[in-house]
User: What shape does this take?
Amino acid sequence: MSRRTLTGLFAIAAVMLITLGMAAAQETPTPTPSIPTGTPAPVELNCDPAELIQQQTDLAAQLAALKLDTSEEAGVTLDRLFKVGEAYQELALNCGYIPADAASRNVGYDIDRIMNALETVYGDPINGQLLYNGDLGCAGCHEAEVPLGPPTESTYTRVDEERLQDPAFEGYTVQHYLVESIIDPAAYVVPDYQNVMVSNFGDRMTLQELADVVSFLESQDS
Ligand code: HEC
Assistant: This one.
């Protein structure tokens, strides 16, 4: 066999190997990512376990029914997949699950859920004061010359000694009252004031920021 033929054979063999390799690589399906099994913080179950399992089963059925046959359906299917995923997360959150990154997520509007998650973060009153006077604009209403809202000073004392005497707040802590005042201001309108407080803070504050602002208000105890 001539040297040239040998080189030719080698070249053909190399091309075949590469092609085979590529085919093999294409055939190996991407493995399904397995869900990591960490040990999340223990939670207090806030829901009925039987109901949770039922809802989870319903979602599983919806997932099983998804089809990805044609490209027309692909968009719809992926959208559905994404939303079912979110619905699963809601189930866990409604049941008391606190995600590891809870502090950096927007707090939302579910007061029970917020009170539960607040136990996992420490509020920083100094940062709370910065937020209160700055970006969140609380001071603009509570500290103005003609204030729209009750004064910042003595908030803790006023809530503890006056507001919580109202039977409507039976079982409330000062912290619970403050959280509700900030996240859902219309739930209770302080006598002699108008219902004009901004009601979108659930979308504008993280859990950490809320904890900071609340601990700042709790420090107003003169
Ligand atoms: C647009 C004006 C406005 C802004 C901005 C505003 N508030 Fe208020 N706030 C009010 C008014 C008016 C009330 C009283 C009426 C009510 O209960 O909703 C009030 C009530 C409260 C109360 C209850 C006080 C009490 O004496 O019972 C708290 C706590 C509070 N606000 C905190 C905040 C915080 C924290 C922010 C910023 C994140 C903020 N507010 C932003 C107008 C405002």
